[in-house]
Design brief:
The protein is of the alpha/beta class and 186 residues long. It is 41% helix and 15% strand. It has five helices and four strands. The protein has a four-stranded parallel beta sheet, sandwiched between helices. α3 links the parallel β2 and β3. It is globular.
């Protein structure tokens, strides 16, 4: 496939890569009840897939290009109901973002970052079963008491992937109306 892409579009045809994969087959289980297979499945799909994408697509990217993924604050804080190893998978994704930024930056001159979006009632998020309560809680307790929108995340992604974000790599940026900064409910 890579040979076909290069043949059609040139030696370095890719400007940016967006990783938006996540799956925890046991996301509704608490960690103490998560199987090894469920845990490894969550980490494999939600974190290692980013490593794999950068491994394979990095050589096809133009210097100055960017890779971007989506994470969630469960990587660093307890979110009851977000289980099955998904918190570990998001922590791995954020750690891998930093390491990949160093390695891919040195090897191919590309940037690697991640966006930690606040709770958003997407179709995929509905799988955890508590997303509506999470959205309402974040809205009620954020410095900007509004729901996160797809546009909020999309605008930040466009910035990160554009030349405007050329000086940023190895970073996790929160797009959550300030929710991540709160230490107590309002």
């Amino acid at each position: 496939l890579a040979k076909a892409v290069v043949a059609d579009f040139g030696e370095k045809p890719i400007d940016y890569v967006v990783h938006s994969l996540a799956n925890g087959p046991e996301v509704k289980k608490v960690l103490l009840e998560t199987s090894r297979a469920g845990y490894l499945g969550a980490v494999g799909v939600s974190a290692y897939s980013m490593v794999s994408m950068v491994q394979r697509l990095g050589p096809l990217m133009r210097p100055g290009g960017a890779c971007l993924s989506l994470t969630y604050m469960a990587s660093e804080k307890i979110i009851p109901g977000y289980g099955g190893g998904m918190s570990s998978a998001k922590a791995a994704l954020e750690s891998d973002t930093r390491v990949l930024a160093f390695e891919a930056g040195r090897r191919w001159g590309i940037r690697v970052n991640t966006i930690s979006a606040g709770p958003f009632a997407s179709r995929a998020a509905s799988a955890i079963g508590i997303i509506d309560a999470m959205v309402e809680y974040a809205k009620t307790n954020s410095p900007l008491p509004e729901e996160i929108t797809a546009d909020d995340v999309g605008h930040t992604a466009a910035f990160f992937l554009s030349p405007l974000g050329a000086g940023i790599t190895a970073s996790t940026i929160y797009v959550d109306k300030g929710y991540h900064a709160m230490g107590k409910a309002v």
